[in-house]
Amino acid sequence: PTVAQGPLSTITLQRYLSSLVSSDESLREMEGLMLSIAMACKTISTLVNRAGINQLTGLETDVMGTRSGSQSNNGPNKKNKPKKNIQGEDQKKLDVLSNGVLKNALKFTGKLGLLASEEEDEALLIESALDSRYVAVFDPLDGSSNIDASICTGTIFGVLEDDSVDIKNEYKRNNDDCVRDEDAECVNTMDALLQPGSQLAASGYCMYSSSTILVFTLGGSHPVIGFTLDPQLGEFVLTHPNMRTPKRGSYYSVNEGNSWLWDASIRHYIDKIKRGEGQSKKRYSSRYVGSMVGDVHRTLLYGGIFGNPGDVQHRNGKLRLIYECSPMSFLVEQAGGGSCTSEGKSVLEVVPEGVHQRSTCWLGSIEDVEELKTYLVPE
Ligand code: AHM
Ligand code: MG
């Protein structure tokens, strides 16, 4: 694709995208979506930066510990309890705020008929935009357990094409209410979300760290590209024009506190690479932030391998397939890296059965991922 020419620091996200659209008109809707995501990420970046000052740290609370939408009881003896998402995890104030920011930014593009978020119990149908070409999945603030210590966090997103648009419109014409999933007679809108990662039209993340960096790819022949938020200009400017994952690295990034629960094959692999007995004969060092966006960003730049392997207690690991594992694997593979599950399958070929489905996930340098696969035992 043709990219606007000029010194990198003068190429803003807007300029980059409009130069893409001028050579490929079919990207116009995507341009609008990416600009909306970027705008939401700027807002989330400000919220994250000012969290301590504006008292936005800590847990979101809910009377009686109910989830949103449930009945609350404001009686005098009722204690506020942490609010939980559908997966039973405590929500931070910033999880809820970031979700609202991103959800609204995407809703008002008018270009998305369906959204799924880590912080929403169910997928959101936007009936006014059912004829839109895209659906989006996101984790609005990944790694939020790190937020109160000012450690990096990030937003992860994926955009999928909705190939059922024509069918939906047909149903809508016949019966305006007939689009919801629970009605068996109606078109199943969820199918548009439950696509394997290989079908992504775009994916990316925004990392909130010492800099705010937006990294994304539009797939196909498009590169993985990174823009850094210039706080003086208030604009994302091109800083990483073509990100390529090094073929081999020397870092491994896993939560080693769980190693006693891992399968022996995974313990064996990690043991080998840290002793310098792997294929490269290099001794690997450990790096683990506990924020996927930070760990993946480092892996993309420096190489090595990141994993959330799952264990005897949690066979499918902690990370969610459609808005964490798939978008990140798509991005890393687009940058020349690799990814696989703990059974050695391609993450991008796993077909989701539910919005919040978990999956094991390894990604990083292609040679490191290929080496790991030689240890893994297929199901
Ligand atoms: P979150 O979406 O609730 O923030 O959880 C996802 C995060 C990832 O960023 C990170 O890779 C993982 O949880 C860390 O989990 P653990 O603390 O179990 O190592
Ligand atoms: Mg997450």
Q: Overall pLDDT, averaged?
A: 88
Class inferred from helices and paired strands: alpha+beta
Task: Name the bound molecules.
Answer: 2,5-anhydro-1,6-di-O-phosphono-D-mannitol, magnesium ion
Residue share in helix: 25-40%
How many strands in all?
Answer: 15
Instruction: Determine the number of helices (DSSP H or I, runs of at least 4 residues).
Output: 8
Biggest sheet, spatial arrangement of strands: 4-3-5-6-7-8-9-10
Unreliable stretches (pLDDT < 50, length at least 5) are 65-74
Rg (CA only): 21 Å
Bulk shape: globular
- What's the order of the H and E elements? HHEEHEEEEHEEEEEHEHEHEEH
Largest β-sheet summary: 8 strands, mixed
Strand fraction band?
A: 15-25%
Termini gap: 40 Å
What's the oligomerization state? single chain
Give a verbal description of the structure.
With 379 residues, this protein is of the alpha+beta class. Helix content is 27%, strand content 20%. The strands form three sheets. Strands 4-3-5-6-7-8-9-10 form an eight-stranded mixed sheet, with helices on both faces. The protein has a five-stranded mixed sheet with strand order 12-11-13-15-14, with helices on both faces. It has a two-stranded antiparallel sheet with strand order 1-2. Residues 65-74 have low confidence and may be disordered. The structure holds 2,5-anhydro-1,6-di-O-phosphono-D-mannitol and magnesium ion. Magnesium ion (MG) binds at residues 118, 139, 142, 324. Magnesium ion binds at residues 118, 139, 142, 324. Homotetramer. Its EC number is 3.1.3.11. Keywords: Carbohydrate metabolism, Hydrolase, Magnesium, Metal-binding. Residues 84-241 form the Fructose-1-6-bisphosphatase class I N-terminal domain.
